[in-house]
Amino acid sequence: MTSSKRASHPTTTISYDIEHEARRILYLAAKLPTRAYQERGFLILPKLEPGLSKNTVIFPDLAYDSIPDFWFRTSRLELSTPITAPPALINETIDIVRPAWRENIYAKAHKRLLDQWQGIEERFWSNLFTLFPSYSGQVKQVFIYLTQSGSTTSFQLLRGDADTIHILARLDTPIDKILWSILTAIFRAKMQDSMNYSWSESQATIDWLIEESSLNCGVNLTTATITQIRNPQIAKWRQDSLEYQKKLGFSGTNLWTQKLDLIHYGSIKIDNLSHNEQLLLEVLLASYGKTVSNNEIMNHLWQDNYEISNWAITKQVQRLRTKLKSAGINHPVIQAHRGQGYSII
Q1: What confidence score (pLDDT) does residue 8 get?
Q2: At 220, is the secondary structure helix, strand, or coil?
Q3: Which of 22, 145, 236, 255 is deepest in the core (most CB within 10 A)?
């Protein structure tokens, strides 16, 4: 369905169908093994749960093995929104999606989002082009496709002569996230290409615009993207995410690598550690995903010094967490297990 009140403003179409659900699953199958989501602190889970962090990628647990060479074929796809894939692969994916397809769920989410969008559409575009008049006319159309899978939203950045924004929005996507996605699609390319902003810096800038300017259009704001990633209350979900990725067989689920004394987390080099911080990180990595007891940590760092207390271990962990954050790991990879010890994921 299309809504537009002034010809000078972009038209917006919000829709859903099983083919776009299948295409989004193919996009995820191509992207998840690259570890791009994982490196930025996103959870990978098979279904939504109440209270789950918005920074979760939903990759449904379907019969992927029933599609010949599924993972090899998806690894050869070029990432785009919506993704382009051979018709045979799209149809095979539709076949495994169909048993779980419930149109009434999509219809309900479609009505909610469409009603919300029509209530603020005119104001949003007017405010945007009043604040940034040089961008007036740059966007001609916005297409929003609703799916059950994926992150809250995904989209292509506007570059060159492109004038159409395509957004894949999960069924639980709040209206402020749609506004955020449109702004990011318009502004992030310049932030990254001309201003050398990092991914996190561009995220934070758009978060700020939504929270502090008229671009929020008075809608209820959900937690900012960066805040969600840094939420320390998601240890269990993060462990569930790791277990699900292992079930799927993704290579590289463990983002930590070490060669001699040099440790990396994905593409992030950890080279700012003191001697004891390095030892602590190494002992945790040696038992990746498992709890390392306080006694084991104490023996590894201080050997037979029995005057060292659990408080000293706690302070050492705090220092290491601070160093990892300063290196660019903005989500909690070191988990505390009360009365037992610590683990790293």
Answers
A1: 74
A2: coil
A3: 22
